[in-house]
Amino acid sequence: MEHNILVIGGNGLVGKTIIRILKSRNPHVQIFVGGRKGGQTGNDLKIDVTNPGTFRVIQEKKIGLIILSVNDKDDHVLRFAIDNGIDYLDITKPTPDLVKAYAIAKNRKVQSRIVFSSGWMGGIVNGLVKTIADRTADILEVKLFVFYSVKDLAGESSAHFMAENVAKPFIRYENNRQVPIKHFLDSENFNFSFGIGNRVAYNFDVPDLYILNQIEKIPNVSVKMTYNSKFITWLLGAFQKVRIFNILSLKERRMIFGSSGKGDQSVFEIVVKTKNGAEKLSLRSSRGQAELTALSAVLHTEELLKNSHENNVYFSHQLHQPAALLEKLKAYETISIQGGL
Fold first, then answer.
1. Where do the structural domains in the chain lie, given as residue ranges?
2. Coil, strand or helix: which one is 59?
3. 237-245, long-range: CB < 8 A, 24+ apart
4. How far apart are the C-alpha atoms of 243 and 225, rounded to whole Å?
5. Helix, strand, coil: what percent of the chain each, to 5?
6. Is the domain covering 4-119+290-321 a CATH 1.10.3720.10 domain?
7. In the chain, where does DSSP find H-type helix?
8. Which of 69, 185, 281, 334 lies deepest, with the highest CB count within 10 Å?
9. DSSP 212
10. Which tens digit of pLDDT belongs to each residue from 153-164?
């Protein structure tokens, strides 16, 4: 594979962070930045995901891997990568878009590595699950608990997703049954690690629900989230309970979810239940979500650079040996992990 890598959305928060980490760890690769406005250097490419006519430059620059860090709802970049035999890594898709894109890829003949990495924090949760239980077949239930700080740096995409979907039902899995639920309902108390303590957590939609049940065949999967502010967590639950989100405009909902701070920690915890009991893995990124998501994308990229994976369609955790993934995360200076192998 050519070591020419294109990061589409490379001028955004996560895209810039991917480029910084990738350059520091892999100085031999050439990185191009794709954006709607282009840029000042030969490595800045004018690419608009809504206009496939702008993709010609990808072939001209002999790009071997496209990292997509901007939402491409119509999957133009995915289709282009498949048609032209270019490796592809997408970290952006909410669950409905991921399901659609996966179906497109599975129904096409692929001559490159097509990798979907849209799970929580760049798709690492599903790999870490396998560090807790030796065999996925032994897992009865996975619960993911997310601690989100409004002080954390956040890009627009997650805020827009919440604004667009907070009033819509999504799916969790109970004994392999699809159960429709909504965000910020069904409260559950959870004792978070790293000094956070006991918090009330509510339903939260991430692609790991689909991946862990439909791909890894785990019968019971749920995800719940709490904010660093107990008051905000309670308020969002109250808004959902009395259906206030249903009457707010999209603009008003974006104002609610669109705040971004100057940086804070990001924490998630995975609880895996087998017939032998329950075990937990806790992960903390002191630099927040953008850093952790970008690092995950870089770790997946490094696996592709090894050129040891055959042309196929993958979810990103399938690129890794679980124990090796865990050790790479532990080795990163801003990440702390408790539990696992």
1. 4-119+290-321, 122-287
2. helix
3. 237/184, 237/185, 237/187, 237/200, 237/202, 239/184, 240/166, 240/182, 240/183, 240/184, 240/185, 240/202, 241/185, 243/167, 245/166, 245/167
4. 19
5. 40, 25, 35
6. no
7. 13-25, 56-60, 76-84, 95-106, 120-123, 125-132, 156-165, 208-210, 230-241, 244-247, 250-257, 289-305, 322-331
8. 69
9. I
10. 776 667 778 888
Which residue has 């965000």 as its token pair? 183
Which CATH number applies to 122-287?
3.30.360.10
Average pLDDT, the chain: 93
CA 58 centroid distance within chain = 24
In this structure, are residues 322 and 341 in contact, taking their beta carbons and an 8 Å threshold? yes
Residue 30, burial from CB neighbour count under 10 angstroms (0-12, 13-18, 19+): middle
pTM of the entire structure? 0.94
Sorting pLDDT into bands at 50, 70 and 90, what band is 1?
very low
Closest CA to 119 of 331, 320, 330: 320
pLDDT at 341: 62
**Hey, is 130 helix, strand or coil?**
helix
Question: Per-residue pLDDT averaged across 8-30, rounded?
Answer: 95
| Structure confidence by residue, pLDDT tens digits, 83-121 | 999 999 999 899 999 999 999 999 999 999 999 999 999
